[in-house]
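ligand=S-adenosylmethionine
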Amino acid sequence: MIRAKSPAAERNKGPILEVLRRVLPAEGLVLEIASGSGQHVVHFADGLPHLRFLPSDPSAEARESIAAHLAHAALSNVLLPRALDVTSSGWEASIDEALAAIVCINMIHIAPLEAMYGLFRGAAARLGPGAPLVLYGPYRFHGAFLAPSNEAFSRDLASRNPAWGVRDIDEVAEAAGSAGFTMEEPVAMPANNHVVVLRRAERHGAA
Ligand SMILES: C[S@@+](CC[C@H](N)C(=O)[O-])C[C@H]1O[C@@H](n2cnc3c(N)ncnc32)[C@H](O)[C@@H]1O
């Protein structure tokens, strides 16, 4: 099995881990949505041994790579990857274990908007009050790109698939708010990316 290696994940896994140290809870199971190669989950599980991690990806190729990284790293706090697609209704019901947090890196701009909505809906159904949903990626801020490279990246995404593109932080906050999350101040990261921490509100709707 091939351990895929994304150069970007190699660069950003360290800075993301430092934010996760601050925002993740002290114990419990952390679900990763859209794990991709598996480089992130191995790095996070190694750096946060008091937590357990559950990687996932809808792509069979990605799950093979994640499994290969896990076999190589031999960590006791990571479960085998699951096939999860957040655009499938009820995706969250396929996980039996209680979830302390959810992490999703570089997905909402490389998928149709339905994926962001599906992620927020399912995450809200599974996270308890105050539990974090942590996003990472590039964002527009109030209509403006932070750098020409982000704008070029967004144009490139849209040329590959018109439903893809760098999301505006206001659009993300509104969709997250409708699902029952409040957004913390985004954390600036290298290369014009941000970590966005959404916390499940204390009370939302009938739940
Ligand atoms: C750009 S890759 C990011 C992978 C990894 N998180 C990283 O940052 O290196 C986007 C990932 O999103 C996953 N993805 C796309 N649509 C998805 C969906 N509807 N539900 C869950 N994951 C999805 C893809 O399979 C792919 O692995």
